[in-house]
Design goal:
Elements lengths: L2 H7 L13 H12 L10 E6 L2 H10 L11 E7 L2 H33 L3 E2 L7 H8 L6 E9 L13 H4 L12 H4 L4 H22 L1 H41 L1 H4 L3 H5 L1
Antiparallel strand pairs: 1-2, 2-4, 3-4
Helix pairs in contact: 2-4, 3-5, 8-9
The structure holds flavin mononucleotide.
């Protein structure tokens, strides 16, 4: 799966079927956690892969009775062991870095699960003492997240996010852009998704609005798409011309006019 596709496909899933999870896939998920960045590369995380049925039920119970978790064949518990982080970075290490390090590992694991066709969920609501008692963990380490992992028959939930324009500032706090999409026009991924979304909406609405209106709608979207493509192409050309001019200026006109043949020699 492409990285961006994987990020977009990931969802919190709370419904698992009985299909066992291949150990190899669990290994890949643990490896993804291991590869996460951490402050000064302290790698202050520990992972416990819980497959035992009784313990999974106890963990679900410790997670404010989120009983759906127990159905997942594997629950990975991510622990922070903040001693080294605290030693190197003091209070900031203990209160911030160790949590961020584990969060990076957790997200890597969720993406590795998604990439391998597995469903998962980041669970943060639990009683830490109860979880550590189930797993026999010492008191100087802290459970950061529980990740139930398994196969699901559930359809992916809707992706609900605030709009980029509402959460992104440019250059300074509250630095808003009037037309964010125009600013992003080099990011064809964003454009392609918008076009696909529009086509999906028209297709979905076809039975209620009537086939001819739906066809007209699609034509209109195609026309907009062509317009955007033209706009992007124009910008690309302009950038190329600009680059060529700068290149010529740097080398002097004669040197810059190297023919292909000379280039090959
Ligand atoms: C720190 C953290 C703790 C979370 N804890 C829980 C939890 O205890 N139970 C749960 O069902 N979901 C939990 N979630 C999942 C969020 O509810 C979910 O990510 C959010 O609703 C967005 O949905 P999505 O993950 O499908 O995009 C948690 C997520 C994060 C990042």
């Amino acid at each position: 799966m492409e990285t961006f596709e994987c990020i977009e496909n990931r969802r919190s899933v709370r419904d698992f079927n009985d299909t066992p999870v291949e150990w190899e896939k669990v290994g890949n998920i643990l490896r993804a956690g291991q590869l996460a960045p951490s402050t000064g590369n302290v790698q202050d995380w520990r992972f416990i892969a819980v497959t035992d049925k009784t313990k999974r039920a106890a963990l679900a119970n410790a997670s404010l009775k989120q009983h759906w978790m127990a159905k997942a064949p594997v629950i990975i518990v991510v622990y922070s062991d903040p001693k080294s982080t605290q030693r190197f970075y003091g209070l900031r290490g203990e209160k911030l870095y160790t949590i961020q390090n584990c969060a990076a590992a957790i997200e890597n694991m969720l993406l590795a699960a998604t990439d391998q066709g597995l469903a998962s969920c980041w669970v943060g609501a639990f009683d830490e003492e109860m979880v550590s008692k189930v797993l026999g963990a010492p008191t100087d380490v802290r459970p950061q997240a529980l990740i139930p992992i398994g196969y699901t028959d559930a359809k992916p939930g809707e992706l609900k996010r605030n709009r980029l324009v509402d959460i992104v500032y440019i250059n300074s706090w509250n630095g808003k852009v009037v037309n964010f999409d125009l600013l992003m026009d080099d990011f064809s991924e964003v454009m392609r998704n918008k076009i696909n979304e529009a086509v999906d909406t028209v297709t979905e609405k076809a039975p209620s609005v009537g086939e001819s209106i739906a066809v007209k709608g699609k034509e209109k979207i195609k026309a907009i798409h062509a317009k955007i493509k033209g706009h992007i192409e124009k910008r690309r050309k302009k950038k190329e011309e600009q680059f060529e001019a700068e290149f010529k200026e740097e080398l002097g006109d004669e040197d810059a006019d190297i023919s292909d043949e000379e280039d090959l020699e």
